[in-house]
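During the first year of the project, the team set up a workflow for recording each protein of interest as an amino acid sequence followed immediately by a discrete structure-token representation. This format lets reviewers and collaborators read both layers of information side by side without switching files. As required by the reporting guidelines, we include two representative entries from the current panel. The first entry is reproduced here exactly as it appears in our internal archive.
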Amino acid sequence: MKKKQLFENAVQAIFLLLGLVTVGCVLLITVYLIVSGIPAIREIGLFNFLFGKEWASTAEEPKYGILPFILTSVYGTAGAILIGVPVGFFTGVFVSKIAGKRTRAVIESAVNLLAGIPSVVYGLVGMLVLVPGISKIFHVPDGASLLAAIFVLSVMILPGIIKVSVTALDAVPKEYEDASLALGATPDETFFRVSVPAARSGIAAAVVLGVGRAVGEAMAVMMVAGNVANMPSLFESVRFLTTAVASEMAYSSPGSLQRNALFSIALVLFLFIMLINATLNCFLKRNREK
């Protein structure tokens, strides 16, 4: 008994240590971004930085307005969620509740393959196939646009949404479904009125995962969106918060206002993601209480 108790205490201590390391990493990142990003915001001005419509960091008279980046990130993420979440959700329901064993194995293999593809490959395929296709279909000079970024992001978030949704739906006790069927409900009614509500928290977690992936993606978006600091428009080249940091960090001088402004963009992006997660978690908590 003493050896077993010592082993359990040791395991608990290891888990506690790992949890503290995780929290410590988040705190270190937060402090570093705040320390690195606040000086530029002070020098530029909070209002001019957040609501300025022009970004010209290398001009003779540099301007550091990131409103186009913020709106582009919001619109791009919202568009990807509007497309990706319904497709991922219904695919998850089909895989978990309707598909046969062979069909499920094939779809799960395809989803795992999508999850393992590097983001640069998504960007390359989008640049070679999607961008010219948008240009031809919509008769625009350049297909590198917000619309192309939305399509690429919606595909990239599918694997996470599908896998987490399937896991949540598989965890629903079979007795719930049997009871619904015994009361005369059809299989479809059982799936969407019993199984899905019971797995609501897991499906919501899948949506949170998709939002995080869409907001944080940089390389693929940079390759298909044009990477130009325009106000967001569906058929024009745009730049996201992530791509703004990635595209200029390499040639910005250490300690310069440009470098500090890029850290400020990273801070805004970090706070944006934290706000989304907090809002969704608050929504989930209210639903659980109800």
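The second entry, processed by the same pipeline in the following quarter, appears below.
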Amino acid sequence: MTTAAVIGLGTMGPGMAATLARGGLTVRAFDTEAAQLEKAPGAAGMALGVLGRLGMPDRGGAELISYHDTLADAVADCDLVLESVPEKVDIKRAVFADLDRLVSKECILASNTSGIPVTTLQEGNSAPGRVVGMHWSNPPFVIPVIEVIAGAETTQATCDQMVQAIKDLNLLPVVVKKDVPGFVENRILYAIMREACDLVENGVIEPEGLDTCVSWGIGYKLAVVGPMSLLDMAGLDIYQAVGSYLNADLCNRDDVSTYITERTTKGDLGMKTGSGIFSYTPEDIEALRGKRAGQLVAVRRALEGRS
């Protein structure tokens, strides 16, 4: 792969574009919103700065990223098109339908969907074998894991090519063997979020305490020892004993906690609106983003055995 397009320049698009460019790919970026196109170079520049602090191989930078007013211009002659448009199946399917008309049958069409089955997105595509899931984590310029998900008709060659491309970027491909909603990372994350919201909503703990408990307890351990390895470390007999009574008491609701829905109904969406579970000033948001990026860089370097 030499040329890639990133479609959608919201939360993750600029960071993905920066990561691809740092890896040496020529990147064409596109968004339907002029405001997003205007902000994207600054966001990509910030991401490139973080990639530099991480010591990622420097094969290119901002000079490899161009910004386009039309989808056709952005995807012309690309080897890879990565969509990161809003997480709504009708929007994504419309984008894939447009891409199907604009690119060659050899161009890989990848989706950064957080959980929509890839099989759903490849329906109706004239070459469904080249449609694949490429799920990045946020922030995409710091978190090295990328899930590769095959839909029902995705070819093995497409998956192999995606895995190799991710390795070439000095990132970590994880192959998800079944196209289940949410894939793997978000299924684990949302199970944690469901229990966390339930505990806070029922007055067991305050939000600040919950964050401290997770970050400095299980989060601290899981960064070094994954869940399956942790089972072995703790002892399967211990898990069986505790799980035999605790599993039945865990939250198993199949809707979203009212603790969340009440806030979203009011438009309190978190940092993007200045208020959610916590409140933020513009200065708070800028400071938090810088602080967290620095901390994530430090953690990643430590996990990689670098000072």
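For the second entry, the following points were noted during internal review. The mean pLDDT is 96. The first strand starts at residue 3 and ends at 7. Both points are flagged for discussion at the upcoming steering committee meeting.
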